């Protein structure tokens, strides 16, 4: 066997990846993973200081990082961010729509404003970012869009209905993007994480009953670590996936496959 060397199929050197909501959690892990595969990173969040802190930490580790502070759920801010990229000659080759929020409450108690906030951030934002990215990718004839779905793209759970509706929407948004953009050399796909160890899930992780449920219900018998999404992300961001379109790949320790 020849000496093992990195497979060029998974090489994304020279590409620029915008990962929304990437100062921490899944977004941060995905961004660093794409950076390890060679990409220059554009880190996003709503707060300048949080984004700067994350970007500085990542630079200290050797990543090439740009900062983009904007709210993914506000159309003018998304358009403004892409206008700035244009002005600075930054082409987004890889877009990861990761930013997400959770709001846990029974539906009969749920306020419209909370429903709307969750839908806007978890679903509408992916449309807005996808639209602005694709407008620029189409003339170039290439690009990668990776939307972050969830187990709840397919399964409901009490108390998180707005989130599950948004994540179900992500599944169809991804197919819609594939339907319109595949012919332009853009691959749009999604990753569906299972129960992962993140700050967003702190309340669930620290609830012994919920923790036991996740471990019992997941064939892998454990929660996932954020960096376990990196393999799927690099695959979907790289030349390895040039004929993969509209798919939702679950990275969930097998949970979606069993009762
Ligand atoms: C929740 C969690 C979700 C899950 C995810 C699993 O409250 O249900 O916050 O983010 O971890 O849906 O895919």
Automatic annotation (TrEMBL):
Residue span(s) of domain Ketoreductase: 15-172
Listed transmembrane segments: none
SMART domains according to UniProt: PKS_KR
Keywords, comma-separated and alphabetical: Oxidoreductase
Domain of life of the source: Bacteria
GO molecular function, one term: oxidoreductase activity
Family membership: Belongs to the short-chain dehydrogenases/reductases (SDR) family.
Name of the protein in question: SDR family oxidoreductase
Species in which this protein is naturally found: Jiella pacifica
């Amino acid at each position: 066997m020849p000496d093992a060397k990195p497979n060029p199929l998974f090489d994304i050197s020279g590409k620029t990846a915008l990962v929304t909501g990437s100062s921490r959690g899944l977004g941060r892990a995905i961004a660093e993973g794409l950076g390890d595969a060679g990409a220059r990173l554009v880190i996003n969040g709503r707060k300048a200081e949080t984004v700067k802190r994350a970007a500085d930490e990542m630079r200290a580790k050797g990543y090439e990082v740009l900062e983009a502070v904007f709210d993914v759920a506000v159309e003018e801010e998304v358009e403004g961010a892409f206008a700035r990229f244009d002005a600075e000659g930054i082409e987004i080759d890889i877009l990861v729509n990761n930013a997400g929020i959770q709001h846990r409450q029974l539906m009969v108690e749920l306020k419209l404003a909370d429903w709307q906030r969750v839908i806007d951030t978890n679903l509408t934002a992916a449309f807005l970012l996808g639209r602005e990215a694709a407008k620029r990718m189409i003339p170039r004839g290439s690009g990668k869009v990776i939307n972050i779905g969830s187990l709840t793209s397919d399964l409901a759970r009490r108390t998180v209905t707005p989130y599950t509706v948004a994540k179900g929407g992500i599944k169809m948004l991804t197919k819609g993007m594939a339907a319109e953009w595949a012919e332009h050399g853009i691959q749009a796909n999604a990753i569906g994480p299972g129960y992962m160890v993140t700050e967003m899930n702190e309340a669930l992780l620290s609830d012994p009953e919920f923790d036991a449920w996740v471990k019992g219900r997941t064939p892998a018998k454990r929660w996932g670590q954020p960096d376990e999404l990196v393999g799927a992300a690099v695959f979907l961001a790289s030349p390895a996936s040039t004929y993969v379109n509209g798919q939702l790949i679950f990275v969930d320790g097998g949970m979606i496959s069993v009762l």
